[in-house]
Amino acid sequence: MPGMREAFLSTMEQVLDEDPRVAVVLADISAASLEAARRRHPDRVINVGIREQALVGVAGGLALAGMRPVVHTFPSFLVERPYEQVKLDLTHQGAGAVLVSWGGSYDMSTAGRTHQSPGDVALLDTIPGWTVHVPGHPDEAVALLRDALSGDDTVYLRLSAQSNARPHPGPGLQAMRAGRRGVVLAVGPMLDRVLAATEDLDVTVLYAKTVRPFDAATLRTAVAETGVADVVLVEPYLAGTSAHQVSEALVEVPHRLRALGTRRDAEVRRYGDVADHDLAHHLDEASITAALKDFLRAT
């Protein structure tokens, strides 16, 4: 099965042939994969080179000219480096675009910190109006991409090499399992390991592939049905990125929250594969199981 990146590029090949409004803006990354599309549509496949600020600025200009730009590179070069352009050239100007990253928090584990971006979603959270999708399967990524292309708003699609075994189509928070001792909210590629970690635990498991806007109503309903306002948030990026969303959703309900994600207390400076980084950030199945049991034991 092709991964999310391959599914994205294949879909863009099709979309460029189908919709003359769509343009792709690249900064060398994936340019070779879209070379055939560039030959067919030289005015709508634009490679600015390793100039990430220009990458976003060009997309803003295309949007203001009536195009639907798709902007693609690694998250550290798409959100962090050109943050000012994302803030001003897109959001402040009211220019819609679809930012599509690949690499997650540490998929390129041996490339070093320059290619790792656990803080991308938290950074976008400082700018109003963004829709943020974190698919857990290539099929979900394609469906979310096509939906985003039909609009004119600002959308961030965060793709990863990590994936769940099967897709879970549908909007909002989806109930994967029902229980009575609390609610575990798994985001994107975290779902399968959360389901494995909670197999012997009496908890409700919710799945989110769209995190902004946040589906507060479904979370409130799940907490009410569970009868226990204990929530564990498991995200594939900076721990607690959506904690304020959970707290706001439950503002009228006394609740406890445990946020799991990439570490805030220390930077992981050692090289290793993705599994090594999962261990370092306590996002492997065993670590999630231990954290859940400790949290529920404290009830």
Automatic annotation (TrEMBL):
CDD domains in alphabetical order: TPP_PYR_DXS_TK_like
Superkingdom of origin: Bacteria
Domain Transketolase-like pyrimidine-binding: 2-167
Pfam families in UniProt: Transket_pyr, Transketolase_C
SMART domains registered for this protein in UniProt: Transket_pyr (SM00861)
Protein name from the UniProt record: Transketolase
The species this protein was found in: Amycolatopsis thermalba
